[in-house]
Amino acid sequence: MTDLAETPAGAAPLRDVGTIRSRAEASGSGERRPITIPAERYTSPEWAAREDALMWPRVWQLATTLDAVSEPGDAVEFRVGNLSAVVVRGADGALRAFQNVCLHRGNVLCSGSREGLTELRCEYHRWCWNLDGALKEIPSRRDFGVIDNDAYALPPVAVGTWGPLVFVNFDADAMPLEEYLGGAIADAAHLGIEDFRCRFEVTVKVPANWKTTADGFSETYHVQGLHPELLTIYDDLGDHQVLWEHVGRSRQLYGVPSPRIRPTPSDQQIWEAFAQVYSTRVGLDGTDPGPVPEIPEGATVFEVLAAQLRRAKAEQGLDLDRFSDEELMTLDQYNVFPNITVLVHPDLLSVLRARPGANPDECYLDAFQFDRVNPGDTSPRAKPLKVELPLDEASFGLVLDQDFSLLRHAQIGLHQPGFTRLTIAPEECRILNTHLNLERYLGISPSEIEGDLP
Ligand code: FES
Ligand SMILES: [Fe+2]
Fold first, then answer.
1. Which residues surround ligand 2, an ion (CB under 5 A)?
2. What are the residues whose beta carbons fall under 8 Å from the beta carbon of 274, sequence distance 6 or more?
3. Which residue, 16, 175, 219, 377, has most beta carbons within 10 Å?
4. How sure is the predictor about 452, in pLDDT bands with cuts at 50, 70 and 90?
5. Ligand 1 geometric centre to CA of 154 (Å)
6. What ligand is nearest to the CA atom of residue 223?
7. Residues lining ligand 1, judged by CB closer than 6 Å?
8. Spacing, Cα 72 to ligand 2 middle (Å)
9. pLDDT above 80: residue 30
10. Closest listed residue to residue 367, CA positions, set 217, 221, 250, 159
11. Which of 254, 220, 259 is nearest to 234 (CA)?
12. Banded pLDDT at 4 (limits 50, 70, 90)
């Protein structure tokens, strides 16, 4: 059996926070202490302006997916705040990114997603660049005197990929993406995320700060309150967290109940709760999955659920036999600073991205949904469906809908005069990691965070 709590060699985290269960056992009667964070970081226009000036231009950010830029001539615009990049697949097949600006008078060069481009041409006065960023044409060029073509190449943006995820960094001299992601790449290697294809990308506008939104996907402390049905099928006390510099990871085992639940749920209750939460994955009716199948001698409902999942996916042509039962039933959650949550099951990849809105009290939440293909699948990538929906109309299944619903009223409390600091437990260490990174990028020294990371 694979011990999923082990971290692969070469991926040593900066901190191994362990599990809630192990921390409780280790601490005995020792004092445990929360850490507090200034609330104004979530509400202040001045703080947002500092993020705009010092953080967003210097961090690696998810811009799009390989599926959206798979063919020469594909281009996708990526916006975060006032920054805009265009990611382009060149005629030579290379993936490049540029600041999305016409160097004549500053018009945006590319809006939305484009296909079949042979050049990047501004629609204003029709200045034009090759897909590799070299200046191609200036209409009525003699009126501009002698212009140095090299000086008018499009300003480059660094680009890198992790599996199907395309990242950009507006700082062309930034550390490589591989270094930024640290041990997360090796940690996730067994999951083969390169075999995922993006099916759709949904954007919703959320009435909350981008950090309020991202924080909601950076801890599992809220499972007891917001997702109580998950406790029947998820061992939250065994949730194992590690931190690298820019990435926090939580490894969560499903198909077993939380020890918090007393009395221990029956096999039938676990079967029904798993079907309710994961009906599509296991091919069962979420409201009436029927009786739990006979459990073989020496096995548990955990193995029966894993077999059901394996069988349901096999019926769709997806071979998951290289994954152990433990791997199949595990959710790995990677929180990449500042605003990305990568949720990986062996059969399913979901990625959430929170981008700042027009003021600190709003943001855009983008949800990317992926399907796995078998290794070696050479079928062409299809363009993902891209839609914008009102928050009330977006639905992503029981658990994410509960998360989204909470975000409707997660921000207003942060403005109350009697609330000046958030109080964070060691269990919520991925949120703390975000704030320590924020402080580094914003040049706050010494730290404003009271206390140290666990
Ligand atoms: S602003 Fe683009 S050609 Fe004039
Ligand atoms: Fe949640």
1. 403
2. 233, 254, 255, 282, 305
3. 219
4. low
5. 13
6. 2
7. 102, 104-105, 107, 122, 124-127
8. 38
9. no
10. 217
11. 254
12. very low
Its pTM stands at 0.94
Q: Which of 100, 101, 111, 127 to mutate to test the pocket of ligand 1 (most atoms within 8 A of CB)?
A: 127
Q: Which two tokens stand for residue 223?
A: 């499972």
Q: 250 CA distance to ligand 2 centroid (A)? A: 13
All structural domains of the chain with their residue ranges: 1-58+184-454, 61-173
As a whole number of angstroms, the distance between CA 244 and CA 175 comes to 15
Cβ-contact 73, 115 below 8 angstroms: yes
CA of 280 to the centre of ligand 1 (A): 49
Ligand 1 atom nearest to 106, measured from its CA: 1
User: Domain 1-58+184-454: which CATH class?
Assistant: alpha beta
Reported for 128-134, long-range contacts at CB under 8 A and 24+ positions apart, including other chains, are: 129/153, 129/154, 131/72, 131/73, 131/75, 131/88, 131/89, 131/90, 131/91, 131/96, 132/90, 132/91, 132/92, 132/94, 132/96, 133/96, 133/98
Return the ligand 1 atom nearest residue 139 CA: 3
- The CATH class given to the 61-173 domain equals mainly beta
**Ligand lying closest to the C-alpha of residue 100:** 1
169 pLDDT tier (thresholds 50, 70, 90): very high
pLDDT of 111 > 90? The answer is yes
